[in-house]
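The data layer described in this paper is built around a simple, fixed record for each protein. Such a record has a labelled line for the sequence and another for the backbone structure tokens. For reference, a complete record is included directly beneath this paragraph.
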Amino acid sequence: MQGKGFVKFLLIALTAVCVLQYIYMIPTYNVEKDAEAHAESLVSNLPEGSTERITKQRSYNAEYLDSMSSEEIFSIPLLKDFTYDELKQQNLALGLDLKGGMSVALQVNMRELISEMSGNIKDPTFIQALDNANVALKSSQSD
């Protein structure tokens, strides 16, 4: 099998890149965890779930991360020292699916669907029936 050495080289290179990305991620995660703990300790006297608590907690978290942005948090001996900002820029960006996702709800407008399926006829009896169905739909929980 030709190219065996090339495949091994690619495997080693890919493994090295993955390990390097993971090494960059750990110190930034630790700083962000410390920021959350610091913010939580500062707002612990405020009522749980209040908007003031959430706002202040986000503010304290951002202030902590801002204060750490120029601090050296990771060092590779004989090579380089990294600040929080440098490591954060090196991290892979996680998409919404990896950060907790998002939820989308789609709803069909039944009046528009029926009107389109009928060819948009302008019969007053048909329009009155659609209006009556809309009124009944607003006060009913069934299909």
